[in-house]
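User: ok so my PI wants both of these folded by tonight, can you help

Assistant: No problem, let's get them done. Here's the first:
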Amino acid sequence: MSNSALTAFASRDDLARYGSNGLILFALQMNFGIEDIHSVAASALTDGPDDKSCDLVYVDRATSCIVLAQGYFADIPKASAKASKASDLNAAVSWLLNGKLEEMPDALRSAAMEVRQALEEDRISSVELWYVHNCPESDNATREVEQAASTAKHLIDSHYSPDSITSIVAREIGRDKLENWYRRTEVPIIVTDEFRVPVIDGFAERTDKWTSFCTSVPGAWLRQIWLEHETDLLSPNVRDYLGLVRSEKNINFGIKKSAREDASQFWIYNNGLTIVVNEIEIPEDLGLGLTELVVRGLGIVNGAQTTGTLGTLSDSEASALPDLRVMVRFVKCQDPDVLRDIVRYNNTQNKIEAADFRSNDAVQDRLRAEFDSIPEAEYRGGRRGGVRDAIERKKNLIANNGAAQALAAFHGRPNLAYNDTRLVWTDDAIYAQLFSDRTTARHIVLCHSLLRSIEEAKQEIQSTPEAGRTDMQRAAMDYFRRRGSLQVLCAAISASIESIVGFAIPDRFGVRFSDNCSPRLAAERWSSIVQACLPFAPNLKTACDRDLQNSEKVRDALAMFAQFIAATRLSNQTLFDSFADNVQYVGTPVTNSH
């Protein structure tokens, strides 16, 4: 039987370079709606054969989530994926959370340090263990992933602050789960059954684009439809019901406790649900006693955790449900654009992103207009596409966070670029520093293409077999295995820009390519500069310690790197001058022969 998700993955030629890890990245992109998956891959993938059975370590401080993933890809279809590969996650968790750092390979050591620091700082609320493959799911593999989750919980309880972790989730992500996630990107409603909802009263609101009916429904009805359809009900929520952790800070545990112990007050304690439907028939005898609301098709937009928690109550726990009612807003909308926005703005698992707050900013309006004239480039300026856009690969998109990250790194803030890009959008002072009247689309192209060229340089070395790497490539790869190394190297090359181009640049916001080139061509131009700078990259290692958070070490490392580049300008003069012929400065007037 055909599988739309795997067919879509097979068409993603840009993911082929990652081998079996490409499927992990595809799943990560669907689950988190990541626009620029290659930037994530550059830091999150652990390369090399000695990765201690952990192929990806993704730390997302914006969503307070860590994903540890192991992948498997069967070239010939199989009935199930290797359970032994799933069991490897147990070892990976042990290494990452409790292993001796000095015994780890460089890439994993850097990942482990980042994970542990994020946990120590209480920056993480959710830890997810993934086994991603292209086979049918199996009980054996699922049990192994669940065992890894149990190990993670034990280690977190023993070494960190367990109360801050609201969920530890085990996921076997095989053919069916991938297909389910992919279908959710196509249509928000995948359960198309007819439902008869017991109601007493309610009211309707209508426009020419939608009809909504607000009412109260019995908790028992929600539990029943969960037992019949489970997470298919959550089709507008790409991220499923997150499960329970026994903690007062865990919202799902609190919902269950309230349902058991104070059912009559549940309605006033809970925010209620928003449900999108294909059809709705509002009863005419409202307010005259118990009647039925008829809906066809059902997708829970907001309230996934409430529904999942009530649905997983045991029979004894569910005894209080006759007294429990939940506020629900049913919405029918046939306009696809409005429906998309209903899902986006009501979905608690798709909270408003930091960049959304700047989408109508005058600077972003201007930048979007400027990007219209740049060939083979798209920039949304704080606005977002959907998950569908992300997984269908917008080849020419300069993602919001990608632009912010590149600007922060190029302008000497690699710590901000790697650890806290969200602050660029939420902190007024930081935003004003990076996105001002001096920031132009062509300058963003220059910054973003440098970071992309560095990512490609790392990928090129990774694709070279270990035995075939030169001493310089080995040293560079040793550097690239450190988290934040790409952003630090970007900052270091920027700090050396005057030595590279051979003329004064009083304000780095004024530097750009002299012609209105595409981001792709811009990255190609940077390539020779990146290659010339790579031999000096190992000297930046100290800047990457503790996730770039020692500002003095970062500053000193960048200054030393700039001295090395200045000292080698004469030997690289032809290469540097060739690059400089394509660069101009348009800020404060200076003597500029290029």
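One down. Here's the second:
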Amino acid sequence: MMQPPDLPDIEQQIAIICQRHGCEPHRLLQILIDVQEMYCFIPPEAITFIARHLNLPRVNVEGAAGFYSFLSLEPAGRYRLLFSDNVTDRMLGNEELMRHFCNRLWLEPGKVSEEGLVSTNFTSCTGMCDQGPAALINGWPVTRLSKERIDLIADLILSKSPVSDWPSTLFEVNDNIRRTDRLLGEPFEPGSAIRATLMRGADATLGELKLSRLRGRGGAGYATADKWTACRDSEGTACYIVCNADEGEPGTFKDRVLLNRYADMVFEGMTVGARLLGSTKGFLYLRGEYRYLLKKLEEVLARRCEARLLGTDILGEPGFDFDIEIHLGAGAYICGEESALIESLEGRRGKPRNRPPYPAQHGYLDQPTVVNNVETFACSAMVAVHGGKWFGETGTWESSGSKVLSIAGDCTLPGIYEYPFGVSVREILQDCAAEEAYAVQVGGPSGILVSWKEFERSISFDDLPTAGAFTIFGRGRDILEAVRNYAHFFAHESCGFCTPCRVGTQLQKKLVDKIADGHGTASDLEELKHLGHLMRTMSHCGLGHTAPNPVLDMLEKFPGAYEQKLTSLSFEPAFDLDAALATARRITGRDDPWAHLP
């Protein structure tokens, strides 16, 4: 096994890391990420030294380290391969590829190899659904996996080749932009939105934002102008702009493309917001799966500073000061919820806060804070350049503008598609060559499962709202297995803060497993409905509210997916104790009546 680092050495290294982050408690997650990268896990001694340098209770540091799935409190090996376990990766054979990898290296999933070299396991969706099966090797994305690529990876690991020296072809990530409209199809000149805002004035630009009827692109669809106005009018000594780039919804990958191809537009939207609200500090919260974009994004920020589009006296405007800092996540779906994201920004576990108060009044450091997602800030920049009327001409009255969709699953042309709001599901399926579509999960697991009978429905806030995921299931796919994957996802990602979600997601997973394994009964279906109602009405945050969605949609729209799995009994236990004793009977050679339960 890997030997623990020498204590004097680790104390010195931790001191350097903490000093690099200013020994600031709010930088705890970033410090933990740096320690993880240095030692391939977080040694217990490191937690003690971090707590000492940040003047925090040790339990707080250990609690944060144990919350994020990309951080490990136990040795995870020099190489850590995490297979993406989104439903689209399942459809492409990720389980067989993991078995092949384990056989090559004599591994057991979830455990480190005997010599401490390598470990493997599953992880949630990595945002590579258009080019799966995918995985992360020490945090770096590997796409389009095949047995040949797995063999190559195994050989590189056995030769102990540094990941930085591996063939670049393994790490190729394509944007796959298939269709553009107003947002992605218009050329964008860096600085154009800021200049338009300065010429028009802050109040007038906020008026244009209201005229545009822009709604947040995260799925909930709150009016952007109203959120920004509430933040501007709130009392506080500072104001913060936060870009939520933690798109952890399985099946969603549009933010990955927006940040890779349109980062200037996103940062410009944040800067326009800073001018309107009087903010001097912004954060981009980048999900851990997209860490490979960090260097490129930092280069964009540096270039914008050189061009006086960030920093002090932006574009020569006295007092217009604004900087953006990139904050890395570490594998926690719940941090996509804005208050949980703020908790993470402040160096804590990403647990949702009670609301009200809302972040617009009391957010980061208890100050007024605007939190919007990547696409919303990109839209804000285009509104500043072209005006609210131009933006509102596209889409519908309730859903103005366009929507960027992440399309994957059973289609010939997966990738990024931009449509005006109001487009029908059927038109999208035709464009991406999904000829045998049977069902579509719109908005990821927390969204809506649409059957083939509903393909005339439209993508809009008043019909099918979505943060961007559009996962297609063709005829012949087992919808129950897809729902099972989603149920396991929610059970894994629940933060555990409230009982309805913590217990409810686990019970939902077990009931779906019971049905899928052929032991379900009519009473189990009723229990799922009752459980779903409790989770929707009693959970603390949106994760618990939406976790029952795919299960309840399946029960309503796809009775054939589960009916053939049901037994004729009104109740059947999920665990057969007598059958579980079969191994003991074989070992002891007993099979008499006293060796069986009555």
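The CA atoms of residues 312 and 318 lie 8 Å apart. The mean pLDDT is 94. Good luck tonight!
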